[in-house]
Amino acid sequence: MADNSERFLCISTYEKGQDFLRELHTQGIKTTLLTLEKHRHGAWPFECLEDLATMPANLTNEQILNTVAWMSRERKFDRLVALDEFDMEVTAQLREHMRIPGIGTTAIAYYRDKLAMRMGARDAGFLVPEFVRVLNYDELREYMGRVSPPWLLKPRSEASALGIKKIQEPEQLWRALDELGDRQSYFLMEQFVPGDIFHVDSIIKDGKVVFSAVHRYGKPPMQVMHEGGVFTTRSVDRNSEDWKQLTELNARLAPGLGLKRGVTHGEYIKAHADGRFYFLEIAARVGGAFIADLVEQATGVNLWREWAKIEVTDFRRTEYAVPQVRAEYAGSVLCLAKEENPDTSLFNAPEIVYRMKKHHHAGLIVRSQDPARVAALLDEYSVAFVEKYLASMPPPARPTA
């Protein structure tokens, strides 16, 4: 007898997305998780999975494709979902190979390739810091003669601020390109625009933004990644001009880049020089660094679960119900810690609603109806975290699970 069960295959080479898997189970989907062998015994909701399959690290895309094709001999997968950004390209390739609905390799480039997304955002009418592909040396010379330094040499397909180098003068660029060798075309160069960095986390349905939340980083993530320090981010006042402008900009961005459904994490710079917002980057995923928890504390919306609901309703061709939103404010403070399991119990403000549990990290989330109270707590706690917990280490050349 044919098996007519509804099945999803989720791929994640990092330990994340547990609430996505739980929601699929709640929705009655039989789910297989494909992850790395080293995550076999991770904190997965095993009771929500039909199967957990593992693979060695560093497989090529072709080897992953062969693995999934072999798995598909016994089970028919109706949807493929990449839970982590670094799995999105191979999952898009799998969809096209297996002819399963969802975003393909060309469309996913606007959410993975920093050069493609900048070109797409610029073509859609967004302000973008002056950039140039690292390909033709005459183009690079023309760019450096026209655009004032400093410039940022950025990997096109990394996440966060990994691999970024600040370039002060042309000779420094040529030395960096010599070191990169044949890898240099996988980079772009962009003008460094001093400013405040904001992030907007969204839910997309039928090509429209149906939910978004605006937050502002303390120190820019690139500065925290490269110089160390305490990472903070907090909700923007909903009555402010920043909230209004970023909500309107973001409502145009994801549809302008072609995403039909899912979640996005977009980042924007409010330039110190002219006070205008410039597009920085966007990813078709839930934000890292406990941003999903931050959004849920401020709004009541769990981005992982809503993403799962959108995938299920699209597959079943049923209506997606936009979640009710709680209009509060939240902020998070997080740092690399010297102790393996730092004790944060000495912080006891009633606004503390979440204590992060991650080895060698200290972190808290606070919530209030007053955005000024959130800002004051983050200011206080970020100083205290430096004194009590902060450890430092060089930024990794590649992401680590």
UniProtKB/TrEMBL annotation:
Q: In the UniProt record, does the keyword Nucleotide-binding occur? A: yes
Checking PROSITE patterns in the record gives:
ATP_GRASP
Q: Read off the Pfam families from this record.
A: ATP-grasp_4
Q: What's in the keyword line of the UniProt record?
A: ATP-binding, Ligase, Nucleotide-binding
Where does the ATP-grasp domain start and stop, copy by copy?
118-312
What is the official name of this protein in its record? Acetyl-CoA carboxylase biotin carboxylase subunit family protein
Please report the organism this UniProt entry assigns to the protein.
Answer: Acidicapsa dinghuensis
